[in-house]
Design goal:
Largest sheet of chain B: 9 strands, mixed
Distance between the termini of chain A: 38 Å
Shape of chain B: globular
Number of helices of chain A: 2
Strand order of the largest sheet of chain A: 2-1-7-3-5
Structural class of chain B: alpha/beta
Number of strands of chain A: 7
Low-confidence stretches of chain A: none
Number of helices of chain B: 6
Largest sheet of chain A: 5 strands, mixed
Shape of chain A: globular
Oligomer: heterodimer
Mean pLDDT of chain A: 93
Strand order of the largest sheet of chain B: 14-15-16-13-9-12-11-10-17
Radius of gyration of chain A: 12 Å
Helix content of chain B: 10-25%
Largest interface: A-B, 17 and 20 residues
Number of strands of chain B: 17
Strand content of chain B: 35-45%
Order of helices and strands of chain B: EHEEEEHEEEEHEEEEHEEEEHH
Order of helices and strands of chain A: EEHEEHEEE
Strand content of chain A: 25-35%
Structural class of chain A: mainly beta
Low-confidence stretches of chain B: none
Amino acid sequence: MNSKFKITLLGETEVTFEMGKGIAVLISMQNNSHNLIKVGCRGGGCGVCKVHVVRGEYHCRKMSRAHISEAEESQGYALACCLYPDSDLEISTQLDSAP
Amino acid sequence: MAQRGVLRPGFVQIKVLDMDAAIAHYRDHMGLDLVGIEADGRAYFKAYDEFDRHSVVLREADAPGIDVMAFKVYCDEDLDVFAKRLNDIDVKTKAIDANEQPSVGRRVRFETPTGHVFDLYAEMALSDNGPMIKNPDVWRAEPRAMRIQRFDHCALIGIDIAAAAKIFTDALDFSITERAIIPDNGEPVAIFLTCSNKAHDIAFLGNPEHDGKLHHVSFNLEDWKDIGHAADLISRYNISLDIGPTRHGITRGQTIYFFDPSGNRNETFAGGYSFYPDTPIREWTVDQMGKAIFYYEKEVHGRFVEVFT
């Protein structure tokens, strides 16, 4: 039984790492010594780690509505510090719309 | 100092995303005492060395940040005096009824051009768990977790910080202790003010586009050793660290910055110089901001500027 998920971060460069359940994508990225996503408060409050999940299943804990509207949340936008994978994920770190 | 008028920062009401996580942070990791949770869901806390009932109020909301910072004034009639002085410089005031928060008297509310809400109040019930006063021991029970002594100050982010500071100096008798400026035009980028003889009771930090934001809520610790202890707790319990332990050039305070579970920045702080009304204003130029903010690192990392709630 494989409880590891493959996370692919798409940006100026592309990085992949594996992570388990129960930890946020941003924290796992830091633990893997990558820095493609900016690290802010790590609590869903400041919005600097906003990303767009383009493929995969996931869930989020509560995020500031000042940075992720209900519409954005339903379109796959999330704060990486509040983002937990339920499958392999492909995540865009370069957003078209300003946060 | 024969201090009357505005005495000190009294309480701050902070917005949090998840109340259970916030209570665990402020009570169990920072070591504040949970005074109570009221019917409207707000949670009230105090530090072990504070006499009044509460100093930190948490309110669950859909975005973090600050609701209001309140200053305690010496007596009830000061409230009318300060309301008139605010009105005289065209700052509108609003009356907040007694007991909008439990055990707190009437409040006079005003807003700065930076979009921050402030209250003045004269009365709050004494805690039944405050410091001892008869042949007092150093504490009633040994301080827990980060061993916070008191709520100390807030740093708030806005556009026209000079206008905000002017309200505090002109209507409320605060003094500017220290500021950072752009030398070419003298525009302030950070202003530190006190109502007492601390190095600061409130700070305003300039931002080109954001008003009404919270940079940090700060709590006083006894000494540098307790900041190291806070750092150990931050690491042990995976609290989100910003920077530190380190020291500020501005205020000379020793510090560590971290975030609560909703992303509000907290500071635990010790030291800092004493200020008297005849102390000259200390001034920094923006080319020295690294040293001004972080005296050891001599640079300000991006997160410290870009991250706020």
